[in-house]
Amino acid sequence: MTSSSRDVAPKEQTRAALLFLLPAFVLIAVFVAYPIVYAGWLSFFRWDGASAPAFIGLDNFLRLAADAIFWKSLGRNILIAATAIVLQVFLALLIAYCLVRIVPFVSRLFLFFYLVPVMVSEICIGLLWRFLYNPYFGLVNASLKALGLGSLQRGWLGDSATAFPAVVVVMSFTYLGLYVLLFVAAVRNVPESLYETAEIDGAGHFTKFFSITVPMVWDAVRANALLAIIGSLKTFSLVFVLTNGGPNHASEVVSTYLYKAGFSSFEMGYAATIGFAQMVLTAAGAFVIFRYLKRARGGSER
Fold first, then answer.
1. pLDDT tens across the length of the chain (302 residues)
2. Which residues span the membrane (predicted)?
């Protein structure tokens, strides 16, 4: 085979690969890249969605910098992300370890129950939990009354002190099953010989979990932590259905505030500014967490 014929094959393979990738590139360009660029462009304008946009320069960004509701909403998103690391990622890893190493005979049954919320629409889950939180006939208040804790009954979603914690509980319940499933697959791939050696040395489940399981599935921990953080910073559906950011912005997050600015106040330019800032902050937060987890893995290996 001559050198020219050897060069032709890689070129043909490259062209074929690009041809197969072209539909994906087109979809990304139309539904991801273009909206991002358009939102960045629109953030420099005042627009109500109907009349012609009016260029206002950096006014929307200056307004955003002084917007207390936006920063409080962003703070709640960050708190949701921090809670997700504990109540979703770490708890899911602990549950996955128990299902694989302690009670493997019921793992399939429990996985089914954990995955039910993942398979159901978030809108349906939100409506279900609104019924459970109902102050008059909801299961939460009825259970408290049956346990003799009637003094703790309240309108969970209508009380500014409990609306946001109630939403966080629903989010943790909804997404926990997905991370349990991902971690079960990771824990099952840990070599059995490592656990056998640890048992010979007299190690218990606590030692095996932190000394073997966590280091061996650290890549899965990092990936799931990133998923949880990104999802927490852009969460919308559950908050919108449960409280719509109320009462009095007590459970407002960035996405619901963006929705109200664009579709209730008809300030499309300002809504685009909120969305653009949300995208930048989410990307920056994901990058920082990814670098931190990578460095933590490197330190543990040393």
1. 455 545 556 778 888 888 888 999 999 999 888 988 998 899 999 998 888 899 999 999 999 999 999 999 999 999 999 999 988 999 999 999 999 988 888 888 888 888 888 888 889 999 999 999 998 888 999 999 999 888 889 899 999 999 999 999 999 989 998 999 999 999 999 998 888 888 888 888 888 999 999 999 988 998 898 889 888 988 999 999 999 998 999 999 999 999 999 999 899 999 999 999 998 888 888 788 777 777 665 555 54
2. 16-37, 78-99, 111-132, 163-187, 225-243, 268-293
Distances (CA, A) of 196 to 135, 191, 210, 217, 265: 52, 9, 15, 17, 63
Select from 106, 10, 43, 4 the least CA-distant residue to 269.
Answer: 43
User: Do residues 120 and 129 make contact, with C-beta atoms less than 8 angstroms apart?
Assistant: no
Q: Are the beta carbons of 282 and 262 closer than 8 angstroms? A: no
CATH code for the part of the protein at 68-301: 1.10.3720.10
> What is the C-alpha to C-alpha distance for residues 272 and 47, in angstroms, rounded to an integer?
10
In terms of DSSP H, where are the helices of 3-88?
A: 3-28, 34-42, 59-65, 68-84
Indicate the domain borders of the chain.
Answer: 68-301
Tokens of 172: 């943790």
> Both tokens of residue 198?
């640890």
Taking each helix axis as running N to C, give the angle between helix 34-42 and helix 268-301, from 0 to 180 degrees, rounded to the nearest 10. Answer: 120
Closest among 131, 110, 128 to 120, alpha carbons compared: 128
Q: Alpha carbon of 84 to those of 15, 49, 168: distances in Å?
A: 43, 36, 9
In the block, residue with structure tokens 């060069």: 7
Q: How far apart are CA 140 and CA 33, in angstroms?
A: 44
